[in-house]
Amino acid sequence: MDPVVNYVPLMIMIAVGLIFGVSNIFLAEYLGPRRSTRSKLTTYESGMEPIKSARERFTVKFYLVAMMFILFDIEVVFMYPWAVEFRNFTDNTGLVAMILFMVLLFSGYLYVLKKGALKWD
């Protein structure tokens, strides 16, 4: 039996999902109501009256903190499989690799701290 045949149901499911999603987007665009009012076009802030414009620019510090959060949060992606397989390591190479990874990560954290990227002045 051809191995590609095993993937035919998966390909059909993906195709049906794509067709369904795209068709719903186009149907909502063409069949949906078009009643724009001033209140629908204003900024929504949890039911409160908007204070500022939604087009206000964020400082670069906001994006730096977001990138650092992602950078330091991704460490869990590498640490979780390591922790699951820790008992199966026969030598210390896995432990040395994780210690090296943590030292690199901690040095990056110290660099960010030294540069003052976490200060909200």
Helix-strand blueprint:
Blueprint: H1 8-31, H2 38-41, H3 60-73, H4 75-84, H5 93-115
Would you kindly provide a written description of the structure presented here, covering whatever features stand out?
The chain has 121 residues and is mostly helical. It has one domain: Methane Monooxygenase Hydroxylase, Chain G, domain 1, CATH 1.20.58. Helices cover 62% and strands 0% of the residues. It is flat, with a radius of gyration of 25 Å. It starts with 7 loop residues before the first helix and ends in a 6-residue tail after the last helix.
Question: Major sheet, described briefly?
Answer: none
| First-residue to last-residue Cα separation | 66 Å
Number of helices: 5
CATH architecture group name: Up-down Bundle
Q: Taking Cα atoms only, what radius of gyration do you get, to the nearest Å?
A: 25 Å
Q: What is the β-strand count?
A: 0
Provide a quick synopsis of the model:
62% of the residues lie in helices and 0% in strands. By secondary structure, the protein is mainly alpha-helical.
Supply the key terms.
single chain; 121 residues; mainly alpha; Methane Monooxygenase Hydroxylase, Chain G, domain 1
